[in-house]
Description:
By secondary structure, this protein is mainly beta.
Amino acid sequence: MKSFLLLILSLMTGCEASDVVTGCREGWVEFIFKYPEANGNYQRIDLLKAEEIIIGSIRKDVWENKSRFHLYHDTENKTFKVIINQLPHEDFGRYMCELYGKNESSPAKVKLGWLFETESGFTVSISNVSPQHTGVYWCGVESTEGRYRAALRKIQLEVKAAITSFTRSPTIGQNVTYWCQYPEGAPEKKFICKGKDPSICEHVVSTAQNTERFSTIDETEKRNITITVRGVTKEDSGTYWCGAEHIDSLQGQYFYHRFLMTVVSLVPSTTSPASSPIQPATVSYHGFDRASVLEIALALSLDVMLLTLAVYLAYTGWAPCMRINRGV
Length: 328
């Protein structure tokens, strides 16, 4: 008979041991172990806790299920798989796995490792989310040899309306004010951060603490944040995100608006426009402009002069004939 420890589920945190598996309540664990003897012919497997059988199976290449416990005897790969789902408080403790051969009266016992609840964590980000990303995700760990997996946290991701984006191009030295509206039920702690990727953007101001140049006002009744940037500089150009987070940072962050700011310089003109001939101003006068009135007046003056000349010529040419006819 071979004696090995299968696993221990403990509520302790921060413990160090060899072959440690980390897990947490409400998560799940999965163990895969090979036959104790490569040429063994095992007919039955039992999973025990405190000497009590939790689940057992005599079937091969098929799942045996009992509440949150599952067993699978894989004869092709000569392995057994144990899965425990939705770990509650009472599931934590010491477990043992016993294997029975065809002609063996005493079981073989297999060691998998130790499982502890952990306080450590890591950050996961999904960029450019879309409705297709909606669903349930698990954060977990896996051994390099593939002997076990453990889910540490369940994440329900719901993708709502797209993030609103807007742009501004202020001049150096100006003050810029913009607004960010957030949905009902948003976490109380609001913030503004800078960077192309919101998951690693740098916080510049929050509703809890303003700075000399960046300030925020949270109008909770309107669910609106007013953000002001005073005396903008070239270095202020970039992408800003309006978001919120829970007091417990492990609950994640939420982003509602994206603000693109490009600060420009006001450069005075150093060259004068090329000179051009001065054109007379055009003033409207009862449907005619001034130039048109002058043209009409000049034309009329010429007509009067020509008429006067014609009358004079006619008179001076016909006067002698008239005296002769009269016998003068």
